[in-house]
Design goal:
This protein is of the alpha/beta class and 238 residues long. Helices cover 44% and strands 18% of the residues. A six-stranded mixed sheet has the order 1-2-3-5-7-10, sandwiched between helices. Strands 4-6-8-9 form a four-stranded mixed sheet. 36% of the residues are buried.
Length: 238
């Protein structure tokens, strides 16, 4: 049975999916602890950034435990907690240290930034299994990398190398094996030193533009700019 390990490093919360025997699949017993860690980090003002990774060097996350899917009497959480990074106000970085497949890929796409080690492998097997890429993967992949590349990846169900993922813009940083967590923490530290209010507003603004259009974004921008300006004036910082 796997476990969820959380660790505070300054203003960063590191959440590790530890289930190496199953390529860090998230089994049913791990869903609630995983979600609780993310909810806690998002509500704790001392936490500025969250990093999600997998234990060891073989896998980031291979999705759900396939042996549990369809088992009588077993119910997965809905909505899927692996999609929760998208709902958080704080930035989330995926430190991808190996296999990143199925719902694990969905989770990585729901993070704001992605750091991948050279041994990372990305896969969306839904077309091969007669399933559907869930959690918005169809449009998330097409937003994170060129649409034709994303379409090819989904339709062929073939794996994508870390180098191609970096070249096509799916990941922000490509690092040597064993360095994904370290580099993700360096990136998180740079973000954590900035204004938390502005960082969160940037994430929120992107969502408004993507999901509600330009008119809604303009309204958001005007209101948020005024709010941030007053916060600066109130603090005495110039």
């Amino acid at each position: 049975m796997g476990e969820i390990i959380s660790e505070r490093i300054g203003g960063v919360m590191v959440v590790t999916i530890a289930n190496e025997a199953k390529r860090n699949a998230l089994d049913v017993s791990m869903e609630r602890p995983f979600l609780d860690c993310l909810v806690e980090a998002d509500s704790d003002e001392s936490i500025r950034v969250v990093v999600i990774t997998g234990a060891g060097e073989m896998a980031f996350c291979s999705g759900h435990d396939l042996k549990e899917i369809g088992r009588p009497g077993l119910t997965f959480m809905k909505p899927d907690p692996m999609g929760h990074p998208d709902l958080m106000k704080k930035p989330v970085i995926a430190a991808i240290n190996g296999h990143c497949h199925a719902a694990g890929l969905m989770m990585a796409l729901c993070c704001d930034l992605r750091v991948a080690s050279e041994n990372a492998v990305f896969g969306q097997p839904a077309a091969r299994l007669g399933d559907l890429p869930m959690g918005g993967q169809i449009w998330r992949l097409s937003s994170a990398m060129p649409r034709v590349r994303a379409t090819e990846m989904m339709l062929t169900a073939e794996h994508l190398s870390a180098q191609d993922a970096f070249d096509w813009g799916l990941v922000n940083r490509l690092v040597p094996k064993g360095k994904a967590r370290e580099v993700a923490l360096e990136l998180a530290g740079k973000i954590a030193r900035n204004s938390a209010a502005t960082v969160q507003a940037i994430k929120a603004g992107q969502k408004v533009r993507d999901r509600h259009g330009l008119s809604a974004y303009r309204e958001f921008e005007a209101g948020t700019h005024e709010m941030l300006r007053k916060m600066v004036e109130g603090s005495g910082d110039r």
